[in-house]
């Protein structure tokens, strides 16, 4: 099949493209390669996935005109929309960037899918939509009406926008709520990367809420397997579904939302300990309070995704952290 993948030079996007190519699909990848973090890392990711079945086009999908031209040129079967302005804390400092990429950009993708009869749109949502929820594990039947960051609010908005297009135009859409993805080629703004860099540089690491935090850390290979599998599970209309009795993760329209995570949260201090073990260095630690936009615990109920795809995460935190640290030291010659 022919896929469009947005966020092609990103952490998850580049790895999804790699798997699609391995499975003999044709892929066009787009990204604006902005400087939110080190562009050298983005270009290096693109370099490693060069292939005759892959074409990269530099496009900002918040700009409708070149995006429409791309859809006109290529007859895409499916779209995997992973591009977005990421980061919880950055959304507090630079809110307008999220309006452009995550709201206008998502609408542009939906419009292009509508106009070109795309078979299936899979897009990135986030575990951050669960916001103030205390009940764990997080289930897709839970309320997600109380986000604690603008980033989370834009991801909830993406789900709502997608449902409206599924309802109005019959476009099959699937949202994936990602839970703390980590691994080789990861993002420099995320904790594993920040901790590893600071420990190697002899700097103290900031530990929020004095380490009393839990995250459903999910290794990149497990995430990519789930994304590619769900692309084959196209939502269908269900005329029996009713708002009063049905789950909000499905609909009478061809619409679905799934959690995609490991399903076993790890205490932050345990995760840091694994990094220390992999590096052979004890971290200098600066304990501090809870930060704006943060949540105490994330924990994915992935039973629906398993039923749909057979998705079962395989990589534990010890193995995953070791692989990340090995990559980091090699890539940055440490």
UniProtKB/TrEMBL annotation:
Coiled coil: none annotated. Pfam families: Epimerase (PF01370). InterPro entries: Epimerase_deHydtase, NAD(P)-bd_dom_sf. It comes from the Bacteria. Keywords: NAD. Residues 4-232 form the NAD-dependent epimerase/dehydratase domain. This is Putative nucleotide sugar epimerase. It comes from Photobacterium profundum 3TCK.
């Amino acid at each position: 099949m022919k896929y469009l993948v947005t966020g092609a030079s990103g952490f998850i996007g580049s790895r999804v493209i790699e798997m699609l190519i391995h499975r003999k699909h044709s892929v066009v990848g787009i990204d604006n390669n902005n400087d939110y973090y080190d562009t050298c890392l983005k270009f290096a990711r693109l370099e490693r996935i060069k292939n005759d079945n892959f074409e990269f086009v530099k496009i900002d999908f918040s700009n409708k005109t070149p995006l429409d031209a791309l859809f006109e040129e290529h007859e895409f079967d499916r779209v995997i929309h992973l591009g977005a302005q990421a980061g919880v804390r950055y959304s507090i400092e630079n809110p307008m960037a999220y309006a452009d990429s995550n709201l206008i950009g998502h609408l542009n993708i939906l419009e292009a899918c509508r106009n070109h009869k795309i078979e299936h749109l899979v897009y990135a949502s986030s575990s951050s939509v669960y916001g103030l929820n205390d009940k764990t594990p997080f289930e897709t039947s839970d309320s997600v009406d109380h986000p604690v960051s603008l980033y989370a609010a834009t991801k909830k908005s993406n789900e709502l926008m997608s449902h409206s297009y599924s309802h109005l135009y019959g476009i099959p859409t699937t949202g994936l709520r990602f839970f703390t993805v980590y691994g080789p080629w990861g993002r420099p703004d995320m904790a594993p990367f920040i901790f590893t860099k600071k420990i190697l540089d002899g700097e103290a690491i900031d530990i929020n809420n004095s380490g009393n935090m839990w995250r459903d850390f999910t290794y990149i290979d497990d995430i990519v397997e789930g994304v590619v599998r769900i692309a084959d599970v196209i939502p269908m209309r269900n005329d029996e579904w009713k708002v009063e009795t049905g789950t909000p993760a499905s609909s009478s329209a061809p619409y679905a939302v799934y959690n995609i995570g490991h399903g076993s949260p790890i205490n932050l201090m345990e995760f840091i300990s694994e990094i220390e073990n992999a590096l052979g260095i004890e971290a200098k630690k600066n304990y501090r309070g809870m930060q704006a936009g943060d949540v105490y615990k994330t924990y994915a109920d992935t039973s629906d995704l398993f039923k749909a795809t057979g998705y079962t995460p395989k990589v534990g935190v010890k193995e995953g952290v070791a692989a990340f640290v090995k990559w980091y030291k090699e890539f940055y010659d440490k």
